[in-house]
Amino acid sequence: MKPTADDPAIRNPVNNIEMEKIEIGGVRIDRCAFTGAIWLDRGELGRLQALSKEDKALLKQMDTQPEEGTRTDRPARGMLSSPKSDKPLMVVRHDQQPHIEFEVCPETGGYYFDAGELSDLLEYTFVEKLKSIFR
User: Which residues contact 9 (CB under 8 A, 6 or more apart)?
Assistant: First the structure.
């Protein structure tokens, strides 16, 4: 999809490569073709959680690392800046799934996910729910 005036192109804060626009279930997201990282604007995470099973399967298929060895691990990359506001992103761990770590822009409410993190977050399994209850 092409960027628009309402939804301009943004750059991946890790490698400064322009992210592509992809639409899944009516939600336009930004994805880095090189690393597989995903940027979601405010409100898009909730809309993705409400997707049909088929659209979630498409998202999972798309939420992968496209090339071997392209992932930039957290310790080597340092502080990231929001592609929308240029403010520092905050690293957050999901309460019920502490193995999932992603970045949030405190100014715009956007989210930055490395390849695979968004799918993992959306697949909050029954086993993970039980583990969170008994912690």
Answer: 3, 18, 19, 21
Phi-psi region of 132 (alpha: psi -120 to 50; beta: other; left: phi over 0): alpha
Element (H, E) at 54: helix 53-62
If pLDDT is split at 50, 70 and 90, which confidence band does 96 have?
Answer: confident
- Torsions phi, psi for 31 (to 5 deg): -135, 135
Dist. CA 121–CA 100, nearest whole Å: 7
Using only C-alpha atoms, what is the Rg of the chain?
A: 15
pLDDT for 74: 45
pTM of the model as a whole: 0.83
